[in-house]
Structure of Putative alkaline shock family protein YloU:
Amino acid sequence: MKIFPRILLWLFALGIAAVSVLGLLDYAGLYRVRTLELNDQAAVVAVIAILFSLYFLFARTGQRPAREPETVTHRLENGDVKISYETIEQLVGRAASTIRGVQNQTTRVRTTENGLLKIMIRYSIEVDLDIPKTTADLQEAVKTYIVTTTGIKVDSVTVYVTELAVKPDVVQVTKRRVE
């Protein structure tokens, strides 16, 4: 919740609590308010209003605890190392950039029940390249790079070829006439 609505809610709860306390003091005969005449039902409502006001004044409404990023835990002799999925996705991107013809790659990382990595890669391949060979090279490069860099074993590297990409040097250049 943003700060302005929070301040308004706090002020409203404070006002309701103050009116309720005055009403209860009048009901008990400890403080006389000329305009108030409370009966038993109004006193119960005042107590409930005070409880709600206290809740809104002191509860941390709308705030969620910070969520820890998804990680893979690698156990070592001296303790654990947690590597975020985002970091592994970046490492996959570095490995994929070494393979000729791989462009526009996106990666998703998950873990199996055994703690092994499952990596899914979507990419565009340049025209006129051998798709099975390029895919096999990509899978091997990613698996080797991740294992050597992080020490975490990779269960599978699934590759999806999403489209054909045009080579940057094949882009047609339009010549302008000079008059």
